[in-house]
DNA sequence: AGAATTATGTAGAGATCGCTATATAAATTC
DNA sequence: GAATTTATATAGCGATCTCTACATAATTCT
């Protein structure tokens, strides 16, 4: 008995599926970016009118926050770091490879929603997206620090920088194998950094 | 006798310095991005009114094109590739280091104007900026191809990806030394790629 | 001097932006 | 059934966007 069946509230029931509407909005934000999508387009894609939009999501900015959190939580990219007893360099290499694949898998949603919107012209949206990014970088840093505390910061920054480049390339329309080649080359520096005295 | 002294044309002379106005516009575009600056702000920074703006530059898009070309031509980053007899890996390592420095040198103009605007929400502006970027990548690829034709494409793509990440980090406010650490680590992959059989 | 040409300032058109006032419809509670 | 609560649709507000119509000022050519 999950609570998927919502308890009926008092007033008039909502005429649309909130979660489905979030999916539509996420797709639009992914394609056009925060600033490239207007409330009119969002509401239209959701099949509703602006007042219903504001009643359900508060504002465009709040909706974006909600979608950022959703996206970050649903992203499986950082899961490789939780595999027990994995070699750090190998884990990060797989992370980059997975990112290269994920970012270019769906041409309609190329790149990373978080990384791409970290450069939005809208100061608030960019700041929120960057906070989201920083949290992921911190996760990577802590992961590396468990075995290589000295190099943890640089390695995490480096991985994030490469991911940013991969996301940008994906949005430029580059094919998956081209991105994977970059990711694999980038892994060379990670191995050199984490296993300096040849195995 | 350079032709800096412009030949007087027929009608009323322009009341502002066109080149100086371009500088103002470039600074604004660098800080706020193509979409973050309006014609009103551009004209105001130039000390003119919209009609003079359109008479002198055609449109916001045309002005941006002109500034992109200006910026790319004035950028000294790719000059290291022209140093005679330089080691390819060392040249690219220096290129990345220089980019890390340049992108974070002036906090008021962090990152690369071209790379940052390649992700603009405005389709035209993003496309023009990406064309500009592609030209630079081609230059790097040709440079690498002279000594390592097989690896030229990946290495050039990789360098561009790292530069994109550096630019993004610079815009996020990261300090120069943090960027340089990333650049130096990135250089490890270049050396590993171009000198595979240990020196 | 007068005609032709170019630049300038004022003022605003037309579109889109995020957002909301208002009235009505559909559900629950009393 | 009446009161309460919540969602919906229509319509539009004020701000901002790119860009321009218009009249006027400043220069060169004849």
Strand and helix layout:
The structure is a homodimer of 199-residue chains.
Chain A lengths: L17 H15 L6 H8 L3 H8 L2 H15 L13 H18 L7 H5 L5 H23 L6 H20 L4 H19 L5
Chain A binds a DNA duplex (30 and 30 nucleotides) through α3.
Brief rundown of the structure:
The first copy, chain A, has helices at residues 18-32, 39-46, 50-57, 60-74, 88-105, 113-117, 123-145, 152-171, 176-194. The first copy, chain A, has nine helices and no strands.
What keyword list fits this structure?
homodimer, 199 residues, mainly alpha, 9 helices, 66% helix, disordered N terminus, DNA-binding
Strand content of chain A: under 5%
Query: Which assembly state applies to the chains in this document?
Result: homodimer
What percentage of residues of chain A falls in helices of 4 or more residues? 55-70%
The tally of helices of chain A reads 9
Structural class of chain A: mainly alpha
Overall geometric form of chain A:
elongated
* Largest interface (C-beta under 8 Å): A-B, 37 and 37 residues
Largest sheet of chain A: none
| Radius of gyration over C-alpha positions of chain A, nearest whole angstrom | 19 Å
Low-confidence stretches of chain A: 1-5
Mean pLDDT across residues of chain A = 94
SSE topology string of chain A: HHHHHHHHH
Gap between N and C termini of chain A: 53 Å
Number of strands of chain A: 0
